[in-house]
Amino acid sequence: MPSADSAPVSSNAPEAKAPPTAFGKGFVLDAWYFVALSRDVAKGSLKRYEIMGEPVLIGRTNAGAVYGMRDICPHRAAPLSAGRMVDKPGEGETIECPYHGWRFRPDGVCAAIPSLVEEQAFEANRIRVRSYPVVESQGLVFVFMRSDPRSEEAPDHAPPVFPGVVGGEAKLVEWMDFDSHIDHAVVGLMDPAHGPFVHQQWWWRSEHSMHEKAKAFEPREFGFAMVRHAPSSNSRAYKILGGAPATEISFRLPGYRWEHIQVGEKQVLALTCLTPVTETKTRITQIFWSDHWVFNIAKPFLRMGVVAFLKQDGGMVNLQNEGLRYDPALIWIDDADKQAKWYQQLKREWTKSRVEGRGFVNPVKAGVLRWKS
User: Can you give the residue ranges of the Rieske domain (predicted)?
Assistant: First the structure.
């Protein structure tokens, strides 16, 4: 795994002008995005997703390999995900288009065009559907979104590996689409000051219990972390874990935030994956793993809490959109908005380093942030 300060760069990085890096515009490219849980991609399945406005087919061969390709047949634009997996002699497993039966291998190469007759010498294998690098890790499926869609070079870094993925499959999964650009979704979820006002559950915290906090942060690979600490005294939900829980909260580009809680030898991992569907829609997926005995008992209540939090955050995004329609200048303050500032710096540095063909230099500096919540 490359270090945060010396990630290799593709030799054919685009020479064109850098994509937009202004807040609320453009995307982090040449990066791995969460797309699905492994258990949701069955053998022989063809699943359609949209990432950055692009239709992406994620499938799994009957042999078990996961793959990704653009979900558009180059013949007449029918979605390949509406077709089926077939296995013809001499072709191997292919994806058959539902319109005219054109068949494509999982790497995107056309294997056959059924309408051709023997005298028509047409080289089907010269036709290709764009393919995407796909990696399956820790029960999650990641897709690599390139800055140059025509490139066939292998990704120069691996997807993230998360601590605390314990107890087999994920215990709890919830998702929701936010009507916002991924930038607004990211900073909204990492914002430490909105909780007492947006999330006013009795078991969480309220504005009446606000007090000053001081947390140490340090740079991590392609991101940063609030280093391990005891949860705040007004965060009541942690008390059900018993013992003396210690938590660490991390963020990594392009859109991963996770909280790793340890209580003795037991662990809880709460992972949030942000996937840009379009410029104005972001999918938020929250996934939990744990080997703590109390998790199974508390899971129904935790599910209700997660859904409530997502709905509250989504509702606030909709309110925020009322103001964003007028394209106002936004005011960012220290220290409560420092993580939002770091995210913007990380995004700019990612884009700039790749355009300039050099290693990524993490702009985050270690330090202590203070705010009230």
Answer: 32-143
Q: Give ∠ CA 157-56-91 in degrees, rounded to 5.
A: 95
Sheet of 367-372, strands arranged across: 172-178, 281-290, 266-278, 256-263, 246-252, 223-229, 212-220, 367-372
Q: Nearest Cα to 162, choosing from 219, 246, 220? A: 220
d(CA 371, CA 226): 14
- Percent of the chain past pLDDT 90, that is, above it, reads 65
Amino acid at 15: E
What's the pLDDT at 195?
Answer: 80
Query: 331: which 2 tokens?
Result: 């005011």
Q: Give the H/E segment covering residue 83.
A: none
Burial class (CB within 10 angstroms; exposed 0-12, middle 13-18, buried 19+) of 11 = exposed
Strand, helix or coil for residue 200: coil
Burial (CB < 10 A; 0-12, 13-18, 19+), residue 161, is exposed
Of 63-72, 149-158, 231-240, which has the strongest mean pLDDT? Answer: 63-72
In angstroms, the CA 282 to CA 156 distance is: 25
How far from each other are the two terminal CA atoms of the chain, in whole angstroms?
A: 36
**For the chain, how many helices (H) and strands (E)?**
4, 19
Question: Does the structure show a pLDDT above 60 at 235?
Answer: no
> What's the pLDDT score for residue 4?
37
Among 254-258, 298-302, 318-322, 361-365, where is mean pLDDT lowest?
298-302
Q: Hey, is 348 helix, strand or coil? A: helix
Helix or strand (DSSP H, E) at 163? none
Query: Does 262 have pLDDT greater than 90?
Result: no
Q: Are 130 and 85 in contact (CB under 8 A)?
A: no
